[in-house]
Amino acid sequence: MAWIWLLIASVFEVAFALGTNATKGFTRLWPSVFTLLAAAGGIFTLSLSLRTLDVGVGYAIWTGIGSVGTVLLGSVIFKEKITKEKVLCFASIVGGIIGLKLASGI
């Protein structure tokens, strides 16, 4: 169940990061409310996953999935460029996430 909580937390992390851009410096009410709720949901569900997972593994995977998801959706929603260099870095992050999952033994 810890991995499911971590995946849910990662979705909240992506929503938080993308929502932060939409707040325009927290000057827009509803995007700000959405962003704060996404942040709270992400931290809460991360904490549930950390009942079982090591904090270093859980946090690294949470931020890794959040980073890759934010860049991928940012390219779709905000038309941000994805370069070959970014793809190489994403592959490194995904490889690290897989390695951490395998090394955790949970």
Summarize this, please?
The chain crosses the membrane at residues 33-50, 57-78. This protein has 106 residues and is mostly helical. The protein is built from 4 helices and no strands.
Structural class: mainly alpha
Q: Given the C-alpha coordinates, what overall shape results?
A: flat
Integer-rounded radius of gyration? 15 Å
Q: List the uncertain runs.
A: none
Mean pLDDT: 93
Number of domains: 1
Strand element count: 0
The description of the largest β-sheet is:
none
Instruction: List SSEs in N-to-C order.
Output: HHHH
Strand content of the residues, in percent? Answer: under 5%
Number of helices: 4
Helix share of residues? over 70%
- Whole-Å distance between the termini? 10 Å
GO molecular function, one term: transmembrane transporter activity
Organism: Streptomyces agglomeratus
Family: Belongs to the drug/metabolite transporter (DMT) superfamily. Small multidrug resistance (SMR) (TC 2.A.7.1) family.
Main location: membrane
Report on the architecture of this protein.
With 106 residues, the chain is an all-alpha fold. The chain has one domain. It has four helices and no strands. It starts with a helix and ends with a helix. Belongs to the drug/metabolite transporter (DMT) superfamily. Small multidrug resistance (SMR) (TC 2.A.7.1) family. Its main location: membrane. It is a multi-pass membrane protein. This is Molecular chaperone. It holds the Pfam family Multi_Drug_Res.
